[in-house]
Design a protein that fits this description.
single chain, alpha/beta, 8-stranded parallel β-sheet, two-stranded antiparallel ribbon
């Protein structure tokens, strides 16, 4: 990273341009990306036409304005409305293929995509688990064949649907069926159990039995934690859920002991800077703790979360690493390789991809004069 007097150095335009070009063209891996949150305005309109559904706008620009984050309640409203457009197995195939098309455009070679399966059963659309996985299977195969993008699934528990809204008591309503689906689909691309939703009032500890069962069945543990609540959420995810990666985890920066633990044990953080700013966790990039995690030696990966809803892309997140955080070419390469190494791909596949990534990095450096 480029620093002057302890502050980030603004890169000259002549240097920023090739770094942007490098960031766009470099091979990448994404680990924190929600399938339903990847639906673009164009895809949403196509789904609405399929089903004769009405959306708040009938053109991409108007729908993008509706997507724009206002508050968390509005975000959930948009997210559920998009989920409601998924009414048949082919709808899921369609959005997976459209996601793969966009990932290929950004040179993302592999992604572990979070899918909130239970929401589609809870919404009362008449879908079955078999409908869901049939669509995912078809989309995943097409993504590989047409775009060369490998996809794996993280099936996440919507934490808020497992608590009684009247009493705040844990019911497990969403947990058991989610674990059943995740385990049943382990040989169909599912690699991990996740935990998503709004953290306040829904701590990780009650979900320990669900994660114990998933781990016993061979799945990995990747809960969201430390986004809307402080370090206690991350500690709970580590201690109760035995998290192997932390979705977000930014609020860990408030506890030096926790930062030290994350560094010592090299637990990967799935950081999403633009998402954090849009959701009001931090007011701007200058306030974001990513550079402090990086300088402390934490295991940092960078991701886009729900890109159309936050008006970002993974490429834009990498641009922000250059513009806001002063990352250079070696830093960008390390972020990309961090994500690859933190993935749940088989070790032999990781090694093969890392060799391909390093070769691509060398060629790009040469082509862009960044040697």
């Amino acid at each position: 990273m480029h620093r002057v007097g302890g502050s980030l150095l603004s890169l000259n335009n002549d240097l920023a341009h090739p770094l942007h070009a490098f960031a766009r063209a470099m091979p990448k891996v994404e680990l924190h990306l929600h399938l339903e949150g990847s639906i673009t305005p164009e895809t949403a309109l196509a789904l609405a036409r399929r089903h004769g559904a009405t959306l708040p706008a009938d053109d991409p620009a108007g729908l993008q304005d509706w997507f724009r984050f206002r508050d968390f309640r509005h975000f959930v409203e948009v997210y559920l409305a998009l989920s409601d457009l998924l009414r048949a197995p082919d709808d899921f195939r369609f959005i997976v293929v459209e996601l793969a098309r966009e990932l290929a455009r950004q040179n993302v070679r592999y992604a572990e995509v979070t899918f909130t399966a239970y929401t589609h059963l809870w919404q009362g659309k008449g879908l079955t688990p078999d409908d869901l996985i049939a669509g995912l299977d078809a989309g995943r195969a097409e993504a590989s064949e047409r775009f060369g993008v490998e996809l794996a699934w993280i099936i996440d528990i919507p934490r808020n649907l497992s608590f009684d809204p009247q009493t705040g008591r844990y019911t497990g309503a969403a947990s058991d069926p989610t674990v059943e689906m995740a385990l049943a689909w382990k040989d169909r691309g599912v690699v991990a159990l996740g935990l998503g939703g709004y953290e306040i009032g829904a701590p990780p500890e009650p979900f320990a039995p669900a994660f114990d069962r998933a781990r016993a069945g061979g799945l990995h543990s990747v809960p969201h934690a430390g986004e809307h609540v402080g370090p206690e959420g991350v500690w709970g995810a580590i201690r109760a859920l035995r998290a192997e990666r932390i979705g977000h985890g930014v609020r860990a920066i408030e506890d030096p002991e926790l930062v030290g633990y994350l560094v010592e044990h090299q637990i990967p953080l799935e950081l999403n800077p633009t998402s954090n700013i849009r959701l009001g966790v931090y007011p701007d990039y200058a306030s974001h703790p990513l550079p402090r995690f990086w300088d402390a030696g934490a295991y940092v990966t960078v991701n886009s979360d729900d890109p159309p809803l936050f008006n970002t892309t993974l490429n834009q997140e990498y641009h922000a690493l250059v513009d806001a955080f002063g990352f250079g070419v070696e830093d960008l390469e390390r972020v990309s390789l961090n994500a690859l190494r933190a993935s749940f791909l088989p070790e032999a596949r990781k090694a093969g991809l890392e060799a391909e990534f390093r070769a691509a990095f060398r060629h790009l450096r040469s082509d862009l004069g960044l040697l």
